[in-house]
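Protocol step 4 of 5: obtain the predicted structure for the target chain.
Materials: sequence only (see below). No template structures provided, no constraints applied. The aim of this step is simply to have a reference model before the mutagenesis design in step 5. Sequence pasted as it appears in the construct record:
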Amino acid sequence: MQQDGNIREPHRATGREEMSVAIAESIGKASRKLAIYAPSLNPLFFNSADTVAALATFCTTAPQNRVRFLVEQGDRTVRENGRLVNLARRISDLIEIRQLGEETAATAEMFMVVDNKGYLHQADSEKAQCVVDLEDTTRAGAFSNRFDRMWERSVVISGLHVLGLGR
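Step 4 output (structure tokens):
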């Protein structure tokens, strides 16, 4: 992407530690909404104290802030991400976790859209490598549109809400 005559490259994070930091920092830079898609939320990244703290701070900073998680493997996500699930249960009006509907084609990637202005993209959710660009509205918009189309066909994860009431 070009900016002021200079070519700006997205940040590349490699390895678990760098990727964990990139995810927490991306959440920390959000100001209104986050949309996160993954086959299953990797607990190394999404159940970490730093990531859950960043999500809690983001959600409690302003009343309009919202986080939507969309996963393929809802039961696994709930089972492996206790900190995140507990936070989502406590502030369920601000954090929503849903599962892809059965008819939706799955992918191996993970992506996060930050305020429709930036993104974090992990091409293969099994590899600890991602690209982060919090100033690329074009790619962020494309990811956001994909997320919204999948979200429309998503379903509530059974067992996520303690009383089983769902949304």
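Step 4 remarks: Helices lie at 16-29, 43-46, 49-61, 74-80, 82-90, 137-152. The radius of gyration is 15 Å.
Proceed to step 5.
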